Amino acid sequence: MKVAIVHYWLVTMRGGEKVLEELCKLYPQADIFTLVLDEGTLSPILRKHKITTSFLQSIPGSRKHYQKLLPLMPFALEQLDVTDYDLVISSESGPAKGIVTRPDALHICYCHSPMRYIWDHYHVYRRELGLASRFVFSLVAPLLRMWDVTTAARVDAFVSNSMHVSRRIARVYGRLSTVIYPPVAVEDFEPANKIEDYYLCAGQIVTYKRVDLAVQAFTRMGKPLVVIGDGPHLEPLRRVAGPSVKFLGRCDFATLKHHLSHCRALVFPGEEDFGILPVEAMASGRPVIAYGAGGALESMGDEGAGVFFTDQSVDGLVDAVRRFEARFDEFDPSRIRKRAQRFSSARFRREMSAFVEAELARKRNTFRQPEWNEIEAHEDSSNTLVLTHDERV
């Protein structure tokens, strides 16, 4: 069986790329197709695979400014030729599910989220553009939405990375999806023997992550906060931060792992589709102070693994920190870690493999030719041929 995995772009190694790695472990013979590639970011697992890029790769600066090429992405994606492949798995967060497959191939879309730029975060993204770019994007976005919705029909089966995203797929595409939570390398994390006196906020520093709430709240309280990550809003946050807030910038995995296991709690103030970082903190035995929306509600469950706040504001976060500190001794690291183990990489591979096999069987049954004895059994008295639904091609 020839397998193609279509990933929107390969310029970093974050949650979506971790899913891609696990898919490559499931299908070591798979070829990868992507819009834009930065070879310097590839993991050893991905380097083993043949990777085909689109014409966007040849545009100067595309690896750094790929998001500005969004209007061209549908054209670039549809020119990638996967007609030789029997199984196509698209990894969707940017344009990926719109790939054109042959009719008898099975196309499964693992959807991290419908494109945020044109749906949930459209107005946030638009506000951050320059005047000329904002005008062009306002004209192009409605066309991109139409393309995005219509290309949902090219997918045989959707897999969503959370119930939160499943509801979004139903609303945007009118399609049902099966929830298979993304893989988290929980075995790479472990609780520390000693907890240090600081809170941690980590991740890409962009608007929707709401790192600004953490910086302002801990500046107001004068409590120690360590911020790990980089992004366009890092410097403005440095300017408003008080002396209790420490910025480490982009760090290696060992530094992140150390801080996750030694912090009092992870502060997670944004709304995520799933959110791998809270699970990594839980795998380290540490509780999470999270905004009570999106994937965090599913990964954390009840408040046995941390504290939620529903008012996404500085006051709401300050109140959550105070409630957390009043309950600090109640949080059991072993119990928290046990919950994180539900999201292991092995579990993802097992569930994804079973789903693909079931869909392959369904596809084969749909496209099989009926046997002659079945045809005769369905002939009525006037010799009119009547086929069941499963026998129609």
Largest sheet composition: 7 strands, parallel
Question: Low-confidence segments, ≥5 residues, pLDDT <50?
Answer: 381-393
Name of the CATH first level of the largest domain: Alpha Beta
What separation lies between the terminal Cα atoms? Answer: 21 Å
Which bin fits the share of residues in helices? 25-40%
The fold-level CATH name of the largest domain is Rossmann fold
Largest beta sheet: strand ordering: 3-2-1-4-5-6-7
Task: Characterize the structure shown.
The chain contains 15 helices and 13 strands. With 393 residues, the chain is α/β, with parallel strands linked by helices. The chain has helices spanning 15-26, 44-47, 73-78, 122-127, 131-150, 163-173, 211-221, 234-240, 253-262, 276-283, 296-300, 314-326, 333-340, 345-367, 372-377; strands at residues 3-7, 31-34, 51-53, 87-92, 106-111, 157-160, 177-179, 199-202, 225-228, 245-249, 266-268, 288-291, 306-309. The chain is globular. The protein folds into two domains: 3-179, Rossmann fold; 186-343, 3-Layer(aba) Sandwich (Rossmann fold), CATH 3.40.50.2000. The two termini are 21 Å apart. The strands form three sheets. A seven-stranded parallel beta sheet has the order 3-2-1-4-5-6-7, sandwiched between helices. Strands 8-9-10 form a three-stranded parallel beta sheet, with helices on both faces.
